[in-house]
Specification:
It is a single chain. The chain is an alpha+beta fold. The chain contains 7 helices and 4 strands. The protein is elongated. The model has no long low-confidence stretch (mean pLDDT about 90).
Amino acid sequence: MSDDLTRLFVRRWLEANERVQEQFAQRVAGAEAAGHRIVDGGQTGSYDDAGRAPWAITDWRTKVVLASGRDDYEGYDAALAKADPDGCWLLVDNLSQQTGLPEVDPIPGLPESLAEALLEWLESKSAPAEVAAWIDERLEDVEPRMRNEVDAFLAT
């Protein structure tokens, strides 16, 4: 087996991740065009003895806190309904989960277990500079394609 197969896998993953980023950007644009406000947040700390936990919801683009409190789930749900009575808020996690993860078709000659290890490396352990050096491409070309869709969208 040659290093060419691992490099090919990495390049295909970068292409697939770029497509995921584009799909996410389209989902955000569509949601905003439909009048939704993209938000982020949720529980920010541990539960106390009364079963309440701190939480905060922020505007995804500006990071401005839109609502916060310390409640149980029912209190949290009621506070959100009060803060967003028209139901216009859309959690960014829902948009990114709809998009999914980059998928790379099997490459003949590349063992499946090695492909899985490469996926783990690319998705959680690699540095863009390492990847760029391994596939002999410029860091400026590789780095934006390695971001997750949320980070990539905010960088534009």
